[in-house]
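Changelog note: in this version the structure field was regenerated for every chain. One regenerated record is shown below for reference.
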Amino acid sequence: MVILMCQLMGQAHSQNTSQTRAIWHCSRNLPSLPNVSAMAEQDEFKLSSMDTIGVTLSDLIDVYNGSDVRIGNMPLIGCFMPGQDAVSKNLLKSLNLKPYVLQKLTAQSSIVLGQLFSVTDEEQMQMCLSTQFPSFGYLSSEVITEKFAPCF
């Protein structure tokens, strides 16, 4: 299982084809938020830089599958593009998720709507990452702001 998670992490971190590269981005920790890294279970494979929220590969998959994942007492928000672009298709495929599943989930459940935000392009992805906390999403290049940064 650890080997599979390492392989997925490598695929999820950087999708390099001739045209696509995707980098996961996460909210940066707020000074008043308890150390979320300490909340991660011991046997969970943690994939987070020091100043971003502590999320795991399982957290990403769970949110994108419609599960309620919390950091502290706040719901973890997943920002995603509908999956028609090459970056989204490759990244979701690396997590063994299908883009149409995300579209179907956001159309069906108000609970999921609260934890999944559909965006149309990278500018909206950055807006989602900037305004939602705690959140994660993906961009084709590294972007570092006061609100979010690359996390895997």
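Spot check on this record: The radius of gyration is 14 Å. The mean pLDDT is 75.
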